[in-house]
Specification:
Blueprint lengths: L2 E10 L9 E9 L4 E6 L3 H7 L5 H16 L12 H9 L6 E3 L3 E5 L2 H12 L2
Antiparallel strand pairs: 1-2, 1-4, 1-5, 2-3
């Protein structure tokens, strides 16, 4: 029986004033399965085309923290120590920064980790 899950794209907006963006990851939460996961992929060529002076290494490092926070890994800092639901809400909270979450959407899945991989493949890579 499928369960509902929530997901949001992670976007890189290298020049916030221009609003140009590229999808760089996905966050998936499935409360009924006790799941919160994130996967990131930074297309450095697309980033260079949007913002040649952007520091891809710094951006990738910040994206990688999202994966750690979602997993509850202590290397993700104090936010990673919050309960799963609070971590999800923190990760998808709107912000005006280089790395931004997109709107939260809902889907149905039998396995949230598979849904995460499918969304990453379809919407990011």
């Amino acid at each position: 029986m499928p369960d509902t899950f929530d997901f949001a794209l992670i976007r890189v907006v290298p020049r916030v004033e221009r609003g140009e963006q590229l999808n760089a990851g996905v966050i998936v939460a499935c409360a009924t399965r006790g799941y919160l996961g994130a996967a990131v992929h930074l297309d450095r060529a697309k980033l260079a085309a949007l913002a040649p002076s952007a520091d891809a290494d710094d951006i990738f490092e910040a994206l990688s923290l999202i994966e750690l926070i979602a997993a509850g890994d202590r290397r993700g800092g104090p936010i990673a120590r919050l309960p799963r639901g609070e971590r999800f809400h923190w990760l998808v909270a709107p912000r005006s920064a280089v790395i931004q979450p997109g709107p939260v959407h809902t889907g149905m899945c039998s396995e949230p980790a598979e849904a995460l991989a499918q969304l990453l493949a379809k919407l990011v890579t």
